[in-house]
Write a structure and sequence with these properties.
There is one protein chain. By secondary structure, the chain is an alpha/beta fold. It is 44% helix and 26% strand. The chain contains 12 helices and 12 strands. The strands form 3 sheets. Strands 3, 4, 5, 6, 7, 10, 11 and 12 form an 8-stranded mixed β-sheet that branches. A hairpin with a 2-residue loop joins strand 1 and strand 2. Helix 2 crosses helix 3 and helix 6 crosses helix 12. The longest helix has 27 residues. The relative contact order is 0.14.
């Protein structure tokens, strides 16, 4: 059993595809297949179920993945600590981010971290709160951003195993077609939005939006459920409905729509999350992000 075989197993488990795993690891698909067959032969277990639509882990494969994650995380931590003792700054750092943080909050942090740690290989992977949490839990990400209160209920215990700190707050805004009657208001109650067709974001904020409606004693008429913010704004601009989005999710220019604060005012908190025993590179990233995120 080699570290390379374990890295390949994790990449295949993460991507669900031999070809994408090979591209991620800068190797060939045949090398990936050969390494996994060798690992399965050595262990005497089938780790993967191979199908026409990709691959997935068997129950034994999931157990091996958990151990492989621990082994490789400790190896990376050892290499980073040894490098630091030599006065060097090397290694890798995988950052899992929710889309709104990646669009408006993380670019500056990533740039400054890259400038101050030029020999650390940075990888950014974007996903929903549930996906980022799963990446942190499985070791696919070393540090990540999460929305407070937006993690699925069945994953709440996983959040408790992480170290989290507030990174930023932003307002929740009603987004309406330009020319809509409510667009002229200084603020809009959620109950008013409930009278119109609603476009629900499924990219992570649905629990927050649903909670706002519940607190207002109403329910939203969800005519559409869409993940991509750009698609949601385009639909609003066409007059297909109204929505609620975090301010950080809005692009600098969004023609055809008008954003209005909610009444009462509502904010969400973006958290920075790390494992209980983070990599040195992740700790350094968190320290820099904490300074910049609150500035």
């Amino acid at each position: 059993m080699t570290f390379t075989q374990l890295r390949i197993l994790l990449a295949v488990a993460r991507t669900g595809n031999m070809t994408r795993a090979a591209e991620e690891l800068n190797t060939t698909q045949s090398a990936v297949s050969h390494a996994l067959r060798g690992l399965e032969s050595e262990l005497g277990l089938s780790l993967l179920v191979r199908g026409s639509h990709g691959v997935r882990l068997t129950s034994a494969g999931r157990a091996v993945r958990r151990r492989a994650t621990l082994i490789l995380t400790q190896l990376e931590a050892l290499e980073q600590e040894v490098a630091a003792a030599r006065g060097a700054d090397t290694g890798s750092l995988r950052v899992g981010v929710i889309p709104s943080a990646n669009a408006r909050l993380l670019p500056r942090i990533l740039r400054l971290y890259g400038e101050s740690h030029p020999r650390v290989r940075l990888t950014v992977i974007e996903g929903s709160d549930g996906e980022v949490l799963d990446w942190l839990r499985t070791g696919a990400a070393d540090v990540g951003t999460l929305t407070a209160g937006a993690v699925p209920a069945d994953m709440a215990a996983d959040v408790a195993g992480l170290v989290t700190r507030p990174l930023a707050t932003d307002r929740m805004l009603a987004v309406l077609p330009s020319g809509h009657a409510l667009a002229e208001r200084a603020s809009v109650p959620v109950a008013e939005l409930a009278r119109h067709p609603f476009i629900m974001s499924t990219g992570g904020c649905e629990p927050l939006i649903t909670a706002l409606a519940r607190a207002a004693g109403t329910s939203l008429r969800c005519h559409y459920r869409v993940r991509d913010t750009g698609s949601i704004l385009a639909m609003v601009a066409e007059g297909l409905g109204v929505t609620v989005v975090p301010e950080l999710s809005l692009p600098a220019h969004h023609p055809g729509v008008h954003a209005v604060p909610l009444e009462p005012a509502s904010e969400r908190t973006i958290l920075l999350a790390l494992p209980a025993d983070p990599l040195p590179a992740a700790t350094a990233f968190a320290e820099l992000a904490g300074l910049l995120g609150t500035s």
